[in-house]
Amino acid sequence: MREMTYLEAIRTALWEEMERDSNVFVLGEDIARLGGAFGVTAGFRDRFGDDRVVDTPIAETAIVGAAVGAAALGKRPVAEMQFIDFISCGFDQVVNVAATFRYRSGGQVSMPIVVRGPSGGYVGGSLYHSQQFEAWFYHVPGLKIALPATAEDAYGLMKAAVRDNNPVLFYEHKFLYRRIKGNIPSPETDFIVPLGEASIPRKGDDLTIVTYGAMVHFALDAAKALEQENISVEVIDLRTIKPLDMKTVLESVRKTNRVMVLHEAPKTGGVGGDIAARIAEEAFMDLDAPIARVAARDSFVPFAEPLEKYVLPSVDEIIETARRLHKF
Amino acid sequence: MSAKLKNRAETEEDQQAAPSYRDQLTKDDLLEMYRRMWLARLFDETLYDLKKKGRLRRGNVYGSRGQEAILVGTTYPLRAHDFVSPIHRDMPAFHFKGMPLEQVMAQVWGKATAPTRGKDSWSHMGDISLGLIHSTSMLGSTVPVACGAAWALKLDGKGDSVVLTYNGEGATATGAFHEGANFAGVHKLPLILVIENNQYAYSTPLELNVPTGRVADRAIGYGMPGIVVDGNDVLAVYDETYHAFERARRGDGPTLIECVTYRVQGHADHDETRARQYRPVEEIEEWEAKDPLPRFRNYLLGTGNFSEAELPEPPPEVVRQIHDAVEIAINSPDPEPATAMEDIYDESAGVSR
Ligand SMILES: Cc1ncc(C[n+]2csc(CCOP(=O)(O)OP(=O)(O)O)c2C)c(N)n1
Ligand SMILES: [Mg+2]
Questions:
Q1: Residue B109 lies in a domain
Q2: Which of A126, A298, A306 sits opposite B337 (nearest CB)?
Q3: pLDDT, tens digit, 9 for 90 and up, residues B29-42
């Protein structure tokens, strides 16, 4: 076991994957000389050299596109977006080129790319350094989407993402980078976290919170507070939203009969709407209360502290919603 | 004085060096330019300092130290009806184009009195009524927008107005920059592309964003003149910008002006330590010696028209101006939380007929 931060866990996973497979390489802005804006690839250039640790021009279309081309010829590129927000500048390559490649090649071509980067709010990053827009890509067939909440999962999911033969969007949460630590298994155990398997970081009986990413910690904080009120909360960490582990969600809902879906992204068009609909389709008769959604307000993530706080979900809001569900 | 590299896209007329427009500048003009250079310098120093002291707690400070000659030289020819779209390293340009300094500071502190009312940070602001076009973080994205602004001016018959954008040399590698520049070239739009070539994009050296090492080389493909100018020489920058304005106003289309300079500080205030590791310290020191402020001052003294006393370092009224603007900003109200939901849509009726 090795204690490391969420950020170090991602770095270690990438490092070990590059040691394991010479087809794995990383590319992005400032990732070689600087080691990345947040230091995720610090030291990589010295170990793996300029051909496998590539400082690119400021050109997200070319970064994702180059990853696609290399993957088509058998490489396993990991592309960094300096902030995940900038993936919007490479949108076409993600949704039209990478996501469709296998389909339009009649199954000839695999597309093992990872596009990763820091995402999310709560750091005063303002509109373009705070976004959590997994929903844009949730809509697109052919993509997988991982949003780790813990250091262990960040490590295990990154390994799974690198080894997967499909394009994986990997949302790291910058609020968690240095705030949380975990115990990472030693490399010999070959520990991975498969894409598409939720975890249950807290067991409970009265209601279920289905969430992912940084919101897992908010849900756990709320669950702890609700314990004082004798409300027993089960927290499900989806870990990946695509594939989506509905089996774990439905089992929990059938047990607690009350469910809240929670995410950091705005409510309208958010992934929570789809999850709620699936629960309604599959487990309507098991519900004792309407499905609740807690999400960001339908705005942008603003800069000033009072504004950012107003827009993004809070632990208090989760607690209040849980009380309402419980009482229903 | 301006080191120039010309390309084949230029007309005969452009083959000559830009005329010395500086000769038309009065003593008052030169003193104002000197004052502005200091304003840019102190803007930077003050925010770095307040960030360190914890009086500015949110957001990054992207400094323009060493690049003041570009900010002053490119904005001085601007008139009220011209437009400019500053980005992260151009904060003083907002003030030079007419935004009150306390408003610029209010934006830095995310206050209700800021142009964005605390919604967005740093240079992501504007004021169309002042000719300041808003930007986002997405590098290169102001250039297509500037094309549209230029088009609107054309539709309105305002052939005399010009749009000026700033981009770092790194941003010229983006698709948005290429698309916008090409669009401007195709349609001969009245656009000036000022490139602040400060040798680095964060940690990435010039040649990893610009394969020829000369941003101006891109211009030939866009069908516009590509000028290279010493970006630490305020009057050289002024001459070239003025020249580009004249071209644009004549209907001869856009110009790319590559201002060669150096980012003597880190990428932002958080990068000061690493910025002395990913590049040679000697290189930084070499450029610190080329500081555009003393250079301009020595030039002015050399003309014989200025006394030492007329060129204080820094001018005390500028120190006071910055200080007052900061205090006003800090003491301004924070935005009300619920205003986060305002201005997502325009709730007015729109056009009915
Ligand atoms: C499309 C896009 N990709 C990445 C970034 C992150 N980023 C912000 S500033 C910067 C470097 C910019 O370098 P340059 O254009 O040379 O301007 P300078 O900061 O040197 O003035 C990068 C990569 C961004 N803002 N936009
Ligand atoms: Mg630069």
A1: no
A2: A306
A3: 999 999 999 999 99
Q: What is the pLDDT of residues A84-96, one digit of tens each?
A: 999 999 999 999 9
Per-residue three-class SS string for B314-333: CCHHHHHHHHHHHHHHHCCC
3-state helix, strand, coil in chain B (%, to 5): 45, 10, 45
Specify the pTM.
Answer: 0.96
Nearest CA among B166, B36, B21, B24 for reference residue B96? B36
Residues A125 and A9 occupy one common structural domain: yes
Exposure of A190 in the CB half-sphere (CA atoms within 13 A): 2
Cβ-Cβ contacts under 8 Å, A128 against chain B: 124, 136-138
Q: Ligand 1 pocket test: which of B44, B202, B203, B270 has the largest number of ligand atoms within 8 Å of its C-beta?
A: B202
At residue B147, φ and ψ (nearest 5 deg) are -60, -45
Output the CA A90–ligand 1 centroid distance in Å.
15
Which of B208, B218, B345 to substitute to test the interface with A, most A CBs within 10 Å?
Answer: B208
Query: What residue in B sits closest to A35 (Cα-Cα)?
Result: B203
Residue A173 annotated to the active site: no
Amino acid at B136: T
Q: Which residues contact B41 (CB under 8 A, 6 or more apart)?
A: B65, B68, B293, B314
The residue segments making up the domain with residue A47 are 2-189
| Ligand 2: centre distance to CA B51 (Å) | 22
State ipTM. 0.96
Listed as ranges, residues in chain A with pLDDT below 70 are: none
Does residue A230 share a domain with residue A153?
Answer: no
Give the number of the ligand closest to the Cα of residue B139: 1
